[in-house]
Write a structure and sequence with these properties.
26% of the residues lie in helices and 17% in strands. It is an alpha/beta fold. The protein has a domain of 87 residues: Alpha-Beta Complex (Ribosomal Protein L13p, Chain: A), CATH 3.90.1180.10. It has a four-stranded parallel sheet, covered by helices on one side. α1 packs across α4. The N and C termini lie far apart (42 Å).
């Protein structure tokens, strides 16, 4: 009988090789940075990618406040939410949001590229944003990745 001698292996929490990665966001376009970081967080760059499991890496983003937006997006890009009360739609521009909390712009962009379910919320907890070039995760021995060379 001719049958397959191998089985499809699905990664789970125990078998996922979770690594720590450092990314420098200085001068990077926001959308490109966010899509590549979301891909790393999700684990899509790995051979053992499993859609229903958290098999991605932990990502540390340095200089998160120094991302760039092209054109007039600092003034035109709006973040909209609703308070839940009648007439409660609010909005804020990217420029005002970055003045309020510099990391929130990157946080919002990456979160929007993750699944909108329990798994997406769990994966988002593997993202660490820092304003400067220093972070507190030296004990995990993170490896540095150049996003311009990352596919």
């Amino acid at each position: 009988m001719n049958t397959l001698s191998y089985k499809t292996v699905s990664a789970n929490k125990a078998t996922a090789n979770k690594e720590w990665v450092v990314v420098d966001a200085a001068g990077q376009p926001l959308g490109r940075l966010a899509s590549k970081v979301a891909k790393i967080l999700r684990g899509k760059h790995k051979a053992n990618y499993t859609p229903h499991a958290d098999c991605g890496d932990n990502v540390i983003i340095l200089n998160a406040g120094k991302v760039t937006l092209s054109g007039n997006k600092w003034a035109d890009k709006e973040y909209i939410w609703h308070t839940g009360y009648p007439g409660g739609q609010r909005s804020i521009t990217a420029e005002a949001l970055s003045k309020k909390n510099n990391l929130r712009v990157v946080e919002h962009a990456v979160k929007g590229m993750l699944p909108k379910n329990k798994l997406g919320r769990a994966i988002f907890k593997n993202l660490y944003l820092y304003e400067g070039t220093e972070h507190k995760h030296e004990a995990q021995q993170p490896k540095e990745i150049n996003l311009n060379e990352f596919k």
